[in-house]
Amino acid sequence: MKKVAIITLNYNGKEDTIDFLSSLNKLDTQGLEIKTVVVDNASEDGSLGQIKRLFPEVDILQTGANFGFAGGFNRGIDYALVWGADYVLIINNDSLIKDKNL
Which letter does DSSP use for residue 25 in this model? Predict the structure, then answer.
């Protein structure tokens, strides 16, 4: 079974991130092991608590500072590779999945 990590960044984007994570339910993940990772670049809008409550299955990496787009995604990719991901999807938190096949 192939392992796929889906990584998104969050920086004070609670609503966008929640909408994005909700839209992942539309994906056809049959035959895949999926790990969803939210890299939080030191949000101060209460995002983390709400994401943890609504999506307990999602792994959250807290950077402790805003490392920007590249720095945040690099931390997520490192995490995914340690997990053993065969594939990594980096995707903005303001994206919405509309097709089961992405």
Answer: G
10 Å Cβ neighbour count for 35? Answer: 18
**Buried (b) or exposed (e) across 58-93, using 16+ Cβ within 10 A?**
bbebebeeebeeeebbebbbebbeeeebeebebeeb
- What the block records as the tokens of 23 is 């839209």
pLDDT digit string (tens) for 35-83?
999 999 999 999 999 999 999 999 999 999 999 999 999 999 999 999 9
CB atoms within 10 A of CB 17: 27
19's tokens:
């909408």
Where helices occur in 1-102 by DSSP H, the ranges are: 14-23, 47-54, 68-83
Among the listed residues 5, 4, 24, the one whose alpha carbon sits nearest the alpha carbon of residue 93: 24
